[in-house]
Amino acid sequence: MEDITTGIPTKSSWKVWLKRKDEYCPFLKDWTDAVPEIEFLELLADAVHSYMFKVRLHGKTYALKLYTVSQPLWSRFETIALVKDAFIVESRAYNSLIERNLGGVVGPHCHGWLAIDKNQEIELDRQFNLSRGYTSTDTGLIHKLKHQGRRPWLGFRQFEKSTDPVRGLLLDYIDGTNLGKATLTSQAASNLRSQLEQLHSLFIAHGDLFPRNIMVARNGRPFLIDFSSAHIYPSVRSRTKEGIEGYMYDEKCALEYYLFQLQQLQRHRKVTLTDALNEEDAYGGRVSSFIEATKEDFVD
């Protein structure tokens, strides 16, 4: 819904966040006042709904995840924003972890949230050429974003008239690589199982548990990352315990499949990551086509 005189949306995820953040995320600190002191060092990655930057603040290196500003046409806007807006969902997941003393135990530690103003947004866009696909000649990335299931626009905003600020989460920086390219120890494999189990103990399913969302630091420590698609019980996405338990079971199966694929690589020939005899044994039955498609992610 929008104001017909201005074309500016009357409902937005930012307004929902301001209204409900103290109720849903009381353990997340507001770092907005520190934004002018943040030094942006590197653009690490982009996703459907966000950009990930390597930054420095007060002499320490962090990862800063900044979320794009879209304008979804949800009918029950506030109810749905609380379970589908990527920033709100990920904030809720990290808040739950911090509340249960699992911050930095499951996934990287989240230090809090922030918002950047329009001038800072424009400067970031200029510095990293975000609205032009990183570089003016990077036609491959532009094609990928527009035609391969990614968001159909570049830069932070879907619509220029939107007035919501760009929001972000300040996270521990992980110097490492994703699971498919990582070297794992038996202890690290057990740690991953433990992280997933502890996340599930909060009745939170990761929601996007693919190799790209599991990082392994240079010191060998693994991390679950990116909780922006999490299913948090109870919600309109997971109305029953049986529903959320189904998601969690599938994620346990997926993790065992990934560990089996790692076990097959030459670099893990002297390491035991799983006792599974084959792919179906690891997965617990016929492998989902979505999970099977990740096989090519595991390379020596």
Structural class by sheet pairing and helices: alpha+beta
Strand-residue proportion: 15-25%
Mean pLDDT comes to 90
Q: How many angstroms separate the termini?
A: 50 Å
Give the H and E element order.
HEEEEHHEHHEEHEEEEHHH
**Strand order, biggest sheet?**
1-5-6-4-3-2
Portion of residues within helices = 25-40%
Radius of gyration: 20 Å
Number of domains: 2
CATH fold descriptor of the largest domain: Phosphorylase Kinase, domain 1
CATH level-two architecture of the largest domain: 2-Layer Sandwich
Oligomer: single chain
Organism: Aspergillus avenaceus
Pfam family, one: FTA2
Protein name: Protein kinase domain-containing protein
Domain Protein kinase: 38-300
Structural summary, described in words:
Helices cover 34% and strands 18% of the residues. It is an alpha+beta fold and 300 residues long. A six-stranded mixed beta sheet has the order 1-5-6-4-3-2. Strands 7-9-10 form a three-stranded antiparallel beta sheet. Strands 8-11 form a two-stranded antiparallel ribbon. Strand 2 (39-46) and strand 3 (50-57) form a beta hairpin. Helix 6 (186-201) runs antiparallel to helix 7. The N and C termini lie far apart (50 Å).
